[in-house]
Design goal:
seven-stranded mixed beta sheet; alpha/beta; about 425 residues; 16 strands; about 35% helix
């Protein structure tokens, strides 16, 4: 294959490459029967297995190595199918991931594992920090790149490589997670400044902002996006990014923005899409079960709290709740909120989630979740609080209240 200068961009795919499969080299090894047709698994020795993704052009191979007490998974493939379930079917040993490098086809399943090791380089940190969008993955799923049917639960439109979680942030900072007093200051800093690894040792707010401005504004907005998308007005991108960073969770109204800034609605829609595809913002749409009418109401969030810190130099305790809400949206990796008479911040796997980062949660604060549970006949809702932890029964349904720090600690593995 051949790569462009961006290492993962324009891949040259020979015609009929898959007709040469299976490769003759595999004939000397035992092929194991297993339920996931996306993978082919070969036993190389009694303790080493090759996990082969022959359905995609890269033909990436991960290796599972069994030890006496633990196992190592060398790379995690494209993230197209469930490599964690496959590995669990082979061994009951605890498994740590070791990445040979951080191209997208070697780290796609990293988010399913609690322990991941990789060589510490600028390229590795960039991929761990931001993940990889589908567009950045060089169209691995298009045309002749794939010949096998995709797994049933695979969503090709939302496929991506996941960035750092809060527990990974704690591990990088070598925080003793047995003690809440050790976690708390890191939690507050993570909410305030986000998860950019290079900034973890920066105490100065000025140094932090200068770094984020150089990385995001100068590099991504002024250089990368204009190069990739051929735009002519990066200043308008900056304006939109700053507006969303200062108002996380804002409703996106193309008509109002068009009137305010004198831009065509299509231009605004495209520019927001460029920010989203560059992993600078996330856009949620209004949840509607059983319909494909997507969906006039939209809300926009910065993709990392560092962007809020860049543009908003001061805020009160109420706005800190918005920081927590933004971090929850990004960690949950949800595409939906819900608004009817009342509203729910996030809908993830059909579970309504509200962020109420305060000492007390009133009955009125639960109106949105109550309405959602009744309308869609769901059994569970979640409220993320400051310190409050309890369970509330609503008919046959349950609303769980959980402190934000506990919720983030539970997000070690992202689905």
């Amino acid at each position: 294959m051949a790569y462009s200068d961006d290492t993962e961009g324009e891949i040259i795919v020979p015609e009929k490459w898959c007709e040469k499969l299976p490769r003759p080299a595999w004939s000397g090894y035992e092929k194991l029967d297993q339920p996931d047709g996306w993978f082919a698994v070969y036993r190389l020795t009694d303790t080493v297995y090759a996990i082969y993704e022959d359905g995609q052009f890269e033909e990436v191979i991960s290796y599972l190595v069994l030890g006496g007490e633990r196992a190592a998974l060398i790379d995690t493939g494209n993230g197209i199918s469930d490599i964690k379930a496959l590995v669990d079917g082979i061994t009951e040993l605890p498994v740590a991931v070791v990445n040979t490098h951080t191209h997208g086809d070697h780290i796609g399943g990293n988010h399913q594992f609690s322990e991941v090791a990789v060589y510490d380089s600028e390229f590795s940190r960039e991929n761990a920090k931001k993940g990889r969008t589908r567009e950045q993955m060089g169209h691995y799923l298009e045309g002749d790149m794939v010949w096998k049917p995709f797994p049933p639960r695979f969503d090709r439109d939302s496929w991506r490589i996941h960035p750092f979680s809060f527990p990974e942030y704690l591990r990088i900072n070598k925080v003793d997670t047995r003690y809440r007093t050790e976690i708390k200051p890191h939690f507050l800093r993570y909410m305030e400044r986000g998860g950019f690894p290079e900034t973890f040792s920066m105490d100065s707010a000025r140094e932090f902002r200068e770094y984020i401005r150089a990385l995001v504004v100068d590099k991504i907005v002024y250089k990368d996006i204009p190069k990739i998308f051929r735009i002519e007005d990066p200043e308008f991108l900056i304006l939109l990014l700053e507006m969303i960073a200062r108002n996380p969770g804002m409703y996106v109204d193309y008509h109002s923005l068009s009137r305010e800034y004198g831009k065509d609605r299509r231009v605004i829609k495209n520019y927001l899409a460029y920010l989203r595809e560059s992993f600078l913002i996330n856009i949620l749409v209004n949840y509607r079960r059983g319909t494909t009418s997507l969906r006039k109401r939209k809300r926009a969030y910065p993709a990392d709290n560092a962007l809020i810190f860049l543009y908003k130099t001061s805020y009160d305790s109420e706005f800190f709740g918005k920081l927590v809400e933004t971090a929850v949206v990004n960690h949950a990796n949800s595409q939906f909120f819900w608004k009817n008479r009342n509203e729910v911040d996030i809908v993830k796997n059909e579970v309504p989630i509200e962020v109420k980062y305060r000492e007390t949660v009133r009955d009125d604060d639960l109106k949105g979740i109550r309405e959602f549970l009744k309308k869609f006949n769901k059994k569970r809702g979640l409220v993320i609080t400051k310190n409050l932890k309890k369970e509330i029964r609503v008919g046959t349904s349950t609303i769980n209240l959980i402190p934000a720090m506990d919720w983030f600690m539970s997000q070690d593995k992202r689905e």
